[in-house]
Amino acid sequence: MRNLQVLRKPARLLRVAALGSLSLGLTGCIPGAERPELSLEVPASYKTAGKGDADAAVPALAWWRGFRSPELTGLMESAQLYNLDIAVAIAQIAQADAQVGVSGAALLPSVSGTANAEREKLATGSSSSLGGSSGTFSQYSLGLSASYIVDFWGKNRATLSASEESATSARYNREVVALTTMATVANTYFQVLAAQDQIKVTRRNLAAAERILALIKSQFAGGTASQLDLSQQEALVATQRAAIPPLEVTVGQNIAALAVLVARAPADFKVRGGSTTQIAVPRVTPGLPSELLYQRPDIRQAEAQLTSSNFSVDAARAAFFPQIQLTGTTGFQSAALASLFAPGAWYYTLAAGLTQPLFDGFLLESQLKLAKGQQLQNLQAYRKAVLSAFADVEKALIALQKYTLQERLQSDVVASSRKAFEVAETQLRGGTVNLITVLQAQQTLFTAENNLVTVRLNKLLAASSLFQALGGGWTPAGTLAAAVQ
Q: Per the structure, how many domains does the chain have?
């Protein structure tokens, strides 16, 4: 239940971050326990974001539906259900929850039952020590023993809190893995579409080159074209034909990668694909930078890890103080089984002990230094996670903005190049242009069309990266908590 509460804890960082700085201060149960201070500069807005983006509608949780591809949506849903990396992350949550139970056991008494039956025959020489008696003796006992360590200094409570924060971290790790998987599925699918587009472009260009080749062969037969003209066009045709197999390799390998992402055997997995022109690019609104502190699961994971290390320092410091242990036993003991439960057979013992470490080869001191070192490591990891998140959003915004502009400009290049090639082909048939001009027009068109496919792919990858950088959409705390149960 505590993990659920941690996921829904108040937005303490967001309120401070909105003012432009972030300070993390946690108080422990040990007098004098120190907490590291963390100050981060949180920008008021993204440098590349458009006007009004901070107040625009937030992306949906199922952000991939914005690309309007039923096949992509199906792949995303299959990956959420069957992806093995996500399954591993879920198994790690179960382990973390079990560790919470292990740590919490130290706060409860330990009770065990005992039952013993002994039968002993004394040697002849030993009878004098028993008042001259000799023979066989029996001893029966049945009892309970209990022990409890008084957590006066809060060591066990701190250990339990550290485990609970680790369990919270495991839940956010599941969200990190899921988000990475979703982005990988989208990017791999876009790679398939782009390779299919390039195959279509190459085959279309191959058909155009073959038309020109047939025309040059006709001119060569009539003596109006040279062998050099014929060989150059044959080389261009062969180049276009040779470009197809590598693209088919790209399609096949990315489909196999998609099969692994949805936990399917590649041999039985098929992707229809299509074209990048059929994929819509949803409008992505980044919101405020301070919101990333709650949108990004990797930031929340780093925060939970830092909090866990804080409690680990508390536990290591508390180990220096005396340990108070209470023990007690009760039960029945008798020399005859028939009288085991008689009133006179009942016994009990109570004891209290105090153990103070004096010298342990600097073990406790080294453990405290180790805990502080891990705390410092997690502190810096948290700082890096926050700063990297801001950078990821800025880079994705820049890429999406510029590739959208480049797509428009490259489309103009393709249109002009196609018009030039059509004019050159018409003039070649009329004999009013030389072959060098035609070859240049062909190569310019072929290059422009391939570049357009690449730009469209880059724009789709940038949109996917932006969704990933923003945490995959705005996730309410309650929804996230329910999703990881």
A: 1
- Minimal CA–CA distance to 56: which of 287, 269, 371, 309? 287
Task: Domain of residue 251: give its range.
Answer: 43-108+153-321+398-483
Percent residues over pLDDT 70 in the chain:
85
Q: How many Å apart are CA 307 and CA 164, to the nearest integer? A: 10
Spatial neighbors of 290 by CB under 8 A, at least 6 apart, are 14, 17, 18, 42
Give the model's pLDDT for residue 428: 86
119, part of any domain: no
H/E stretch holding 408 reads: helix 363-430
Residue 167 lies in a domain: yes
CA-nearest of 424, 418, 423, 422 to 437 is 424
CATH of residue 291: 1.20.1600.10
Q: Is the residue at 428 inside a domain?
A: yes
Q: What is the pTM of this model?
A: 0.83
Which residue, among 381, 186, 389, has the nearest Cα to 295 in the 3D structure? 389
**How many Cβ atoms are within 10 Å of 27's Cβ, its own excluded?**
8
Partnered with residue 329 across adjacent β-strands are 145, 349
What integer pLDDT is reported at residue 123 of this predicted model?
A: 65
CA 172 to CA 452: how far, in whole Å?
Answer: 39
